[in-house]
Design a protein that fits this description.
By secondary structure, the protein is an alpha/beta fold. It contains 8 helices and 7 strands; from the N terminus they run ααααβαβαββαβαββ. It is globular. The termini are far apart. Bound molecules: S-adenosylmethionine (SAM).
């Protein structure tokens, strides 16, 4: 077996053992068969999840530095990292734009506690943890970039969620979404994945238009939207 195959299988086993493919529950589906309900998975223990999310082996396929570069950040950006987790992307973005702000939004109290400690340890005053609600990110300020990585599929009623974001978007704001392809060996159970096409459709229905598609991630689609009015 090739070493790259061994690696993918090993990582799939780790993610599976850590619950990335567990927690089955009933889901609603739209007429096209896509799940309209989020994957209700809890991420309670940050010290556990940091070993999964910040595993250096993830960098090989998640390509975080290339992702941040592709976002073309500007010095004064105001960014919402929705579903920030243990700050895998928030930290990189906060470091990239010391004069800007990164609101690291998460629904888990332990993630917020973890992010607060991390921001202090790394002396990143511009990394601001935000305790979001499942149906509203509760952003304290408007933003010109929203990043949602591996989190969209956890959100219920995404139409309402995307509508709740609108009043918090500055003119020319962009929304970047990265989530698992249906063909990826890693990621949530298949029935909880959202196809690229359905995500584009959901954003379109919510009043956003696709501005850019990036295709350098092997396991995920990477889409950038902007408001269409
Ligand atoms: C799979 S992790 C991804 C973490 C991070 N984006 C990364 O790439 O490492 C999903 C995170 O989203 C959070 N989450 C789930 N539903 C959410 C919601 N409705 N709003 C904000 N965060 C949410 C979870 O608590 C978890 O920390």
């Amino acid at each position: 077996m090739k070493s790259s195959t061994v690696y993918v299988l090993a990582l799939a086993a780790v993610l599976s053992a850590s619950g990335m493919s567990g927690f089955a529950h009933g889901t609603a589906t739209d007429p096209a068969g896509q799940s309209t309900q989020g994957f209700h998975k809890r991420f309670k223990n940050a010290d556990h999840w940091v070993k999964v999310f910040d595993d250096p082996a993830r960098d090989i396929w998640q390509k975080p530095d290339q992702v941040v570069q592709a976002l073309k950040l500007q010095a004064n950006d105001r960014i919402a990292d929705i579903g920030a987790g243990t700050g895998y992307f928030s930290v990189r973005m906060a470091k990239a734009i010391p004069e800007g702000k990164v609101f690291a939004v998460d629904t888990e109290a332990d993630m917020i506690k973890y992010l607060q400690k991390l921001a202090g340890e790394k002396k990143l005053a511009n990394l601001i943890p935000v305790s979001g609600k499942a149906n509203n990110p509760e952003l304290p300020e408007s933003v010109n970039l929203v990043l949602i990585v591996d989190t969209l599929h956890h959100i219920d009623d995404r139409a309402a969620y995307l509508a709740s974001l609108k009043p918090k978007l500055l003119p020319q704001a962009r929304l970047a979404v990265i989530d698992f392809n249906e063909s990826s060996k890693v990621g949530p159970p298949l029935k909880h994945r959202l196809s690229k096409e359905s995500v584009i459709g959901e954003f379109k229905n919510a009043g956003y238009e696709l501005a850019e598609t990036l295709d350098f991630l092997p396991n995920q689609y990477f889409l950038i939207f902007k408001t269409s009015n």
